[in-house]
Design goal:
It is a single chain. The protein is an alpha+beta fold. The protein has 5 helices and 14 strands. An 8-stranded mixed β-sheet has the order 2-3-4-1-5-8-7-6. It has a 4-stranded mixed β-sheet with strand order 10-9-11-14, with helices on one face. A hairpin with a 4-residue loop joins strand 2 and strand 3. Helix 1 packs antiparallel against helix 4 and helix 1 packs across helix 5. The termini are close together. The relative contact order is 0.23.
Length: 293
């Protein structure tokens, strides 16, 4: 699994040209309705580690989240919404060692959380593992991907209790738990229940306080970028830079005031190289989080 990288700005990120929508993709978008970025998924070894990482890296303490009994996980959350990404928040998620995991032995947890390589990686520090896109019609979105030969998995019903009531959603989870395209193809989520007059009423964006952290961009590289572009087009998912290259997911966040230099961490396939730059002492520092396979 990939190493988390932090740099002071998004400068130098490749700007991939987006392919035009073909006729079938245009038809799929019309049927599905446009998808949008919902949240980033940062996997931690445990929530204590995840919170400590968030405080040290971003200078904020994430808000309480909840438990997911279906998969034996729990989370902490913080808002990263902007006008460009109005629903966006970040989820720090970990396996809840105290929870009874009632899922069948043949099935795996979401987001590849049962994958041995990912578990080994997050034992060292949390990893940006994936992202999730929301859709107004999850069944139509899955059908659109199915026409491309992509099995995003069934839409499972999930829920957790919040202070404002029961938060319910449907989310695609394959039995093998795989994220697909090395995590570069988002999991799909539809908030609320069927026929819900206001499905986004309890969406985390409406309950989380402003964190001072905001999502600036998401960039994806993948060896089969053309297939990934076709899939995103079929979903009507924009706002992502796609390039051809080694599998990688990069989220650029603008942080609140930062009065100290934080390390840039680069993965060269060996020991981590930590560089302490002198020019990160300004306010409004941007950090880039990259997850390479």
């Amino acid at each position: 699994q990939g190493q988390l990288m932090k740099t002071q700005s998004a400068a130098g990120q490749p700007q991939g040209a987006k392919a035009p929508l073909g006729g079938s993709a245009v038809h799929a978008v019309a049927s599905v309705g446009a998808c949008s970025i919902d949240h980033l998924v940062v996997v931690a070894n445990n929530l204590e580690q995840g919170v400590a990482w968030c405080e040290a890296t971003l200078g904020i303490t994430p808000s309480p989240g909840g438990e997911h009994k279906l998969f034996g996980t729990h989370n902490r959350l913080f808002k990263i919404a902007t006008p460009t990404h109005p629903y966006a928040y970040c989820e720090i998620i970990a396996i809840n060692s105290r929870a009874a995991y009632a899922h069948s032995v043949s099935s795996k947890r979401w987001f590849d959380m049962d994958d041995g390589a990912l578990q080994t990686a997050v034992a060292k520090e949390p990893r940006l593992a994936h992202f999730v896109a929301n859709t107004p019609d999850i069944n139509a979105a899955c059908a659109a991907l199915s026409t491309l030969g992509i099995d995003r998995g069934p839409a499972l019903e999930a829920s957790r209790h919040t202070r404002k009531g029961l938060l319910q959603w449907q989310i695609t989870v394959r039995e093998d738990g795989q994220r697909l395209f090395s995590g570069a193809l988002p999991t799909l989520i539809q908030w609320g229940t069927s026929g819900d007059a206001d499905p986004l009423r309890l969406h985390p964006r409406n309950s989380l306080p402003r964190s001072g952290v905001s999502l600036q961009s998401i960039a994806v590289s993948h060896p089969d970028a053309a297939a990934l572009q076709t899939a995103c087009a079929a979903l009507g998912l924009g706002g992502i830079t796609l390039t051809t290259g080694p599998a990688n997911l990069i989220a650029t966040l603008r942080t609140p005031i930062c009065r100290k230099a934080l390390p840039i961490v680069r993965d060269h396939g060996g020991p981590l190289e930590r560089i302490w730059p002198a020019d990160l002492a300004a306010a409004g520092v941007e950090r880039v989080f990259a997850r390479t396979e």
